[in-house]
């Protein structure tokens, strides 16, 4: 099979995704295919790199929209080269560092209290009497406060 004649099934197997995921990624403009003379969908080999980046990004919590915005910075929406990716990934690096710091704080607080502001835990070390934390925000207020 030539480098520009990958079937959707072969790409799906090679990337470890379902065929429906490839169709979804294509509908979102994240990957591109072309039709052969028999009107069958075909991909160039570089689609594997794009799908791998999509999967890696999703695994660490980036949205498909964030991935799309990153890919859009490439000339002609091409698949990133190593040089391209070195430049593009700098923004992700800072975001990942922030996520790692947040997860470390969560790990360290998870067995005690993350400051969610709940009113239900009778043995909560920072019992939120009168929902005073509700005035400071929603969710895990103390954890979020410490992440800024």
What does this structure look like?
The chain has helices at residues 8-15, 19-27, 47-59, 64-72, 82-109, 141-146, and strands at residues 6-7, 34-35, 41-43. Strands 1-3-2 form a three-stranded antiparallel β-sheet. The chain starts with 5 loop residues before the first strand and ends with a helix. It is mainly alpha-helical. The chain has a domain at 6-90: Multidrug-efflux Transporter Regulator, Chain: A, Domain 2. It is elongated and about 70 Å long.
Distinctive features:
Multidrug-efflux Transporter Regulator, Chain: A, Domain 2, mainly alpha, 3-stranded antiparallel sheet, 5% strand, single chain
Main beta-sheet strand count, sense and barrel state: 3 strands, antiparallel
State the shape.
elongated
Report strand order across the widest sheet.
Answer: 1-3-2
Q: How many β-strands, per DSSP?
A: 3
Approximate strand percentage: under 5%
Which fold name is given in CATH as the topology of one domain?
Answer: Multidrug-efflux Transporter Regulator, Chain: A, Domain 2
Low-confidence stretches: none
Radius of gyration from the alpha-carbon trace, in angstroms: 22 Å
H/E series, N to C?
EHHEEHHHH
Specify the CATH architecture of one domain: Orthogonal Bundle
Give a short summary of the structure:
The protein is mainly alpha-helical.
Topology of this structure?
Elements: E1 6-7, H1 8-15, H2 19-27, E2 34-35, E3 41-43, H3 47-59, H4 64-72, H5 82-109, H6 141-146
Antiparallel strand pairs: 1-3, 2-3
């Amino acid at each position: 099979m030539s480098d520009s004649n990958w079937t959707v099934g072969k790409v799906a197997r090679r990337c470890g995704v379902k065929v429906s995921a490839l169709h979804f990624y294509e509908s979102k403009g994240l990957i591109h295919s072309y039709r052969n003379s028999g009107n069958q969908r075909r991909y160039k080999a570089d689609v594997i790199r794009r799908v791998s980046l999509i999967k890696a990004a999703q695994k660490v919590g980036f949205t498909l929209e964030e991935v799309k915005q990153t890919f859009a910075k490439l000339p002609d929406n091409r698949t990133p080269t190593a040089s391209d990716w070195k430049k593009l990934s700098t923004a992700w690096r800072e975001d990942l560092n922030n996520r790692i710091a947040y997860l470390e704080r969560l790990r360290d607080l998870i067995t005690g209290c993350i400051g969610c502001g709940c009113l239900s835990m009778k043995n909560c070390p920072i019992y939120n009497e009168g929902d005073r934390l509700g005035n400071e925000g929603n969710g895990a207020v103390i954890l979020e406060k410490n992440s800024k």
